[in-house]
Design goal:
CATH class of the largest domain: Alpha Beta
Radius of gyration: 28 Å
Number of strands: 18
Largest sheet: 5 strands, parallel
Number of domains: 2
CATH superfamily of the largest domain: P-loop containing nucleotide triphosphate hydrolases
Strand content: 15-25%
Shape: elongated
Structural class: alpha/beta
CATH architecture of the largest domain: 3-Layer(aba) Sandwich
Length: 507
């Protein structure tokens, strides 16, 4: 007696179709799983055996062979528990029929309950693209899977209910999530109105958020760098449905997804400075997304960036440039998206008070040079905006005047983003920071006066070609914030000011 059940395994963000072929034959009772299963799948034999018996069904006293085809594809994940159990029950004629356009995923507990799995959303999307019509998923995964159009989601909580469903004795309505990406947007506890003074830093952060530019905040302790960084998500435009789906896929395979379904807030990741290269970039024997990918379409905040090991922050260079990261292993290459806005905060020296008007720096020049040398020139070159943050003045703290709220700043940023979306609608990019060299030549044209200013800055500051391009992209964003079709000299001058920090401290 033979049965064939469809299921799915993940490699990176891509799901691959797998046939669970089950054969029951005579001979001494035995239970074998073949087809390159990993340890979690090999262990499923005991979970499946107990789940079938505790659900009230007889476990066959036969020679059971389960083949996971194709045999040359390594299989990983506990989501194959359920299709193996269904395959055994189908081969035993306990389950009468399973449509070949239906696939099954789920982990089994010993009492027959079907428990949640990681990566359900990308699996469902991948199998829908392979023209499957129906997905049997754990009840706990229904919210994330229910947002997918074009495939029926059948949520099931136990093995016995699934048997009743397949045999036509029970009807389970396909689940559809009523997603609303706006319901969490007003839940932020922080607001820009809580920041007194620091007009220059606020302006730099607004420009960075409008064009999704990377930004470095340098200043003495207590000047407000961390405070403003944590409020950046409150001024970023809301996630679109497509962006939310892409972010949710990354969190799904990482096991970080909540039960509300789609992620509605832009990610804000703030890893500790003890983080490893693997946690930052992603990886492992079965590669998972790292912090750079979990920050996709959001903010990666590195507080006290110079406290991170140098080899950890250097892994940011390639994803900052390409918007993705590729992890190569013996089993293959895995590419995860990583379009994030880097926000880095740091002190100018070990004691933190270099350049502070209220405190005297106690560091020697060699100590300062060694400290600043932890961040390389190539990485600095990839940071579009660099700003020095001065301590807050007492008069600013006691000023009773109202500060701009996050919602007021957000309106300007949304306007600038809409201009960029319209401008680049045929190019497959969304913000000025993604412009290629060819795009810069087309959309960042400047007049003769601005050309002379930029030439002078290029020679005096000793700028690289990358820095030159980033100045033009930031200028384009500043012009968009003012709804200006052309880049004016004042826009260019402001952008140049944001590139002077590395020449001041990193001589």
């Amino acid at each position: 007696m033979l049965s064939r059940i469809k299921t799915c395994v993940l490699y990176g963000l891509d799901g691959y179709e797998v046939d669970v072929e089950t054969d029951l034959s005579g001979g001494l009772p035995n239970f074998n799983i073949v087809g390159l299963p990993d340890a979690s799948i090999k262990e499923s034999k005991e979970r499946v055996r107990a789940a079938i018996k505790n659900s009230g069904f007889d476990f066959p006293v036969s020679r059971i062979t389960v083949n996971l085809a194709p045999a040359n594809l390594k299989k990983e994940g506990s989501q194959i528990d359920l299709p193996i159990a269904v395959g055994i029950l189908a081969a035993s004629r306990i389950i009468k029929n399973v449509d070949d356009k239906t696939f099954v995923i789920g982990e089994l507990s010993l009492d027959g309950r079907i428990t949640a799995i990681e990566g359900a959303l990308p699996m469902v999307i991948s199998m829908r693209n392979k023209e499957f019509k129906r997905a049997v998923v754990p009840e706990e995964n229904k919210e994330e899977c229910g947002v997918i159009e074009g495939i029926e989601i059948i949520p099931v909580g136990s093995l016995d209910r699934l048997v009743e469903y397949f045999n036509g004795n029970m009807s389970i309505e396909p689940y559809k999530s009523h997603y609303d990406l706006s319901y969490e947007q007003d839940e932020y506890l922080e607001d820009f109105s809580e920041i007194k003074g620091q007009a220059a830093m606020k302006r730099a952060v607004e420009v960075a958020a409008a064009g999704m530019h990377n930004i470095l905040l340098m200043g003495s302790p207590g000047s407000g760098k961390t405070m403003i960084a944590k409020r950046i998500p409150t001024i970023l435009p809301d996630l679109t449905y497509e962006e939310s789906l892409e972010v949710t896929k990354l969190y799904s395979i990482s096991g970080l997804l909540n039960k509300k379904g789609l992620i509605s807030k832009r990610p804000f990741r703030s890893p500790h400075h003890t983080s490893s290269r693997t946690s930052m970039a992603g990886g492992g024997s079965n590669p998972r997304p790292g912090e750079v990918s979990l920050s996709h379409y959001g903010v990666l905040f590195l507080d006290e960036i110079l406290e991170f090991p140098k080899n950890v922050i250097e892994v940011l260079r390639q994803p900052m440039e390409d918007g993705k990261i590729t992890i190569s292993r013996a089993s293959g290459s895995f590419t995860f998206p990583a379009k994030f806005m880097l926000v880095a905060a740091m002190n100018p020296c070990p004691c933190g008070y270099l350049g502070d008007p209220n405190h005297e720096c106690s560091c020697s020049q060699s100590q300062i040079d060694k400290y600043l040398g932890k961040i390389s020139g190539p990485l600095l070159n990839r940071i579009d905006i660099q700003i020095e943050v001065l301590p807050v003045k007492y008069d600013d703290l006691k000023d009773e005047g109202e500060e701009e709220t996050s919602s007021q700043i957000k309106k300007r940023i949304i306007m600038a983003r809409k201009i960029q979306l319209e401008r680049y609608k045929d190019m497959g990019i969304y913000t000025n920071s993604e412009l290629s060299a060819k795009g810069i030549g087309k959309f960042c044209k400047i007049n003769k006066e601005s050309e002379l200013l930029l030439k002078n800055a290029f020679e005096v500051l000793g700028l690289s070609v990358r820095a030159y391009n980033k100045i033009l992209k930031v200028s384009r964003t500043i012009a968009d914030l003012e709804n200006s079709e052309n880049i004016e000299t004042k826009h260019l001058a402001e952008a140049i000011r944001y590139r002077s920090l590395d020449r001041k401290y990193w001589r």
